[in-house]
Each structure stands twice: as structure tokens, then as C-alpha cells.
Amino acid sequence: MRTGIWLVGARGSVATTTVVGAAALRAGLVPATGCVSALEAFDGVPLPGFDELVFGGHDVVGTGLVKRAEQLAEAGVVPRGLPGVLTAELDAADAEIRPAPPGTEEGGDGTPDQASAAGAIVADLTGFRERLGLDRVVVVNVSSTQPPAVPHPAHASAAALREALARGERPLPVSSLYAYAALRAGCAFVDFTPSTGARLPALDELAREQGLPYAGSDGKTGETLVKSVLAPMFARRALRVRSWSGTNLLGGGDGATLADPERVVSKNASKGLVLEAELGHAVEGGVHIHHVPDLGEWKTAWDHVTFEGFLGARMTLQFTWQGCDSSLAAPLVLDLARFMALAHRAGVAGPVPELGFFFKDPVGSAEHDLAAQYASLAAWARSVGAPA
């Protein structure tokens, strides 16, 4: 089942690590550490193999994948020497990366209109599928986080959206423009960012009309992953959490992006969902994100929790999470592409809530307990992958 993975932000750190990792897995150079889909629970599920994944994408930068991989090796994200071993594979993927079409840049001047930009994306996606003889294509957005969408009448229905685009309007944030084009091109869509993506009524309707799956949003890779385990622990032990404060120190492009007060709104909203959902009540505190350029590709999260036990005894929990976001995210991108190819093959249309295991703000699901999400994912994969 040859599956194309079209990466929006194809030369970014997450995308580059994903392509390097897939090539290393194909060559048998590394184990599938971090790949959920490679666990024993999914043995026998007809997922595309790592050797059946083909990469392409869009980006606004011209630095090639080999150079980007070498930079990540210098930063300790991928093993030194690995980019040199995989040069041919990286060059092949790089040859399928196209410049982002005019009109898809954030804050573009409106020339051309979004209908033309969507048409250009569709042409690139269909050309990628046909040129390489792919069975299906999964579009994965791993670009920079965008501000929340400004409500627009065209968001209400697929018909209203088509009419607005036909009039030359620009009703969609860039992430949603990519979702729209992906669906028009017959591709599944995943938003790994907290951007709006396919989470508009018009795009949900379009996905169902086209018989295509979509999933998102905001990959759960670090601090929130820990919260989704610890919050249910407090709830099930009847311990009342009174405050939960998190401080996040981020380097690299992600940190620079989230230094923008408009863009950080989307990230903070998704990071805050798990606590109230699992604890059953609001808590004091919140998440504070700081850009520290010196950290480069690495991030640190420090959380301070106050909780109350029997007879009102006050206690605290603190934890520190330090990790490389690209290394944590890349295997999940591979997992999501494999599971979405399965969903597409099975005729799933609309959101895939069972993939909520991978996200801070799971579309189509209010479940945030990691154990419950994993059980749902495993049961779903076995069900849709069963012979007819």
C-alpha cells in the first residue's frame, strides 16, 4: 500500500526528522523507538509498511533536506553520520518538495485569491500521487502554529465556502486552506499543529461529502502527555487538585513562533484542555511559554501541582520534562500517516476520534485519559483493519 506523506512545512525540523527516521527504518539502521504503530498491539493490522512511505511537501524555504539533516545532526537530534548514509533517500524526498504556492503564506497580500492557491495545491498533490503511482496520500500539517481563525460566514457550510472562494475572497486561514485543498484532491488530512486546519463546519461537511478522514489537532509530545497520565491519577484517587502551573522554555523555530502573543493563543488553549476534562473542575495556574533561543531544538517544561488529601492535608507534586520536540514528534507523524492510510482504505469519512491518543485537542472526542485513548485506538485499528 504505497502511501504518500505530503508534509506542509516539509523542510522544518519535525518534517526533516520524520523523513530521516523513515529512511533509517527502511534501511534497518535504527529500531522503531517511539512508533506506536509498531507495537505488538497492532500486529496483523494492514498498515502501510515503513518501506511503502513516500515523501513530498511544500515549504517556503529552499534549504535542502540533506543540509537540514546535517544541521539537526550537529544539534544532536539525529545521529551524526546518518544524513551522509541516507543522502540518496533524502535527495529523492527533496525532489518532491515544492515551493509553497503564492497565496499560502501567512498574511499574504491576497494575490492570487485562495481559489487559485487551492488549485495549485491540488495540482501538486494529484501530480505527486500520479507521478509516483501512490495508492493514497495523507497530508500532514507540521508548519508553524497560526493564530485562531477569525469567524467568517463561509465557515458555516461547504456551499458557502465554495461561493466565497468563487468570489475571490480569502476566508480561510492557511492551515484550513491546506485542509480544503487536501480534501478536494482526495487526500486524508492531519493537523499536527493547534491551528484551525479542518476544524470548520464547512470542511467537516466537505470531508464527509468526499468520503475522506481527517484528524487533529496539536500533537501530544511532552508536558501535556504527562498531564494526560497524571490528571486521571488524581481524579481516580479522589485527590483534589487546587492548582497546576506550567512553565515551558522553548528554543528553535517553535519557540520563536510562540513568542508571538497571537499565535500562542492556539497553543495555550489546546494545552489547557486536559486538566479540566480529567479533573472535572477548573484549577488555578495555567501555562506560560518562554522563548529561549539558546535551547535550540530542545525544550524544558517545569510543572508545579498543589493538591489536597484526606482531612484537607495540603501536598505538592513537581516534575520537569526535558526533551527534543522533533524527536518526539517525528515517530507520531509516521504513526498518524499509517493509521490515516488505514482509515482512508476502510472508507472512514469525517473526523477519526480514535486518533485522539496523539493529540492535545482531539477532534471528535472529549477523552483525554491516555490509557483510555490507547485502548480506543487499538480496538479501532483492529476493527477497521479486519478482513471484510
UniProtKB/TrEMBL annotation:
<feature type="domain" description="Myo-inositol-1-phosphate synthase GAPDH-like">
    <location>
        <begin position="222"/>
        <end position="326"/>
    </location>
</feature>
<dbReference type="InterPro" id="IPR002587">
    <property type="entry name" value="Myo-inos-1-P_Synthase"/>
</dbReference>
<dbReference type="GO" id="GO:0004512">
    <property type="term" value="F:inositol-3-phosphate synthase activity"/>
</dbReference>
<comment type="similarity">
    <text>Belongs to the myo-inositol 1-phosphate synthase family.</text>
</comment>
<dbReference type="Pfam" id="PF07994">
    <property type="entry name" value="NAD_binding_5"/>
</dbReference>
<protein>
    <submittedName>
        <fullName>Inositol-1-phosphate synthase</fullName>
        <ecNumber>5.5.1.4</ecNumber>
    </submittedName>
</protein>
<dbReference type="Pfam" id="PF01658">
    <property type="entry name" value="Inos-1-P_synth"/>
</dbReference>
<dbReference type="GO" id="GO:0008654">
    <property type="term" value="P:phospholipid biosynthetic process"/>
</dbReference>
<keyword id="KW-0413">Isomerase</keyword>
<dbReference type="GO" id="GO:0006021">
    <property type="term" value="P:inositol biosynthetic process"/>
</dbReference>
<dbReference type="InterPro" id="IPR036291">
    <property type="entry name" value="NAD(P)-bd_dom_sf"/>
</dbReference>
<dbReference type="InterPro" id="IPR013021">
    <property type="entry name" value="Myo-inos-1-P_Synthase_GAPDH"/>
</dbReference>
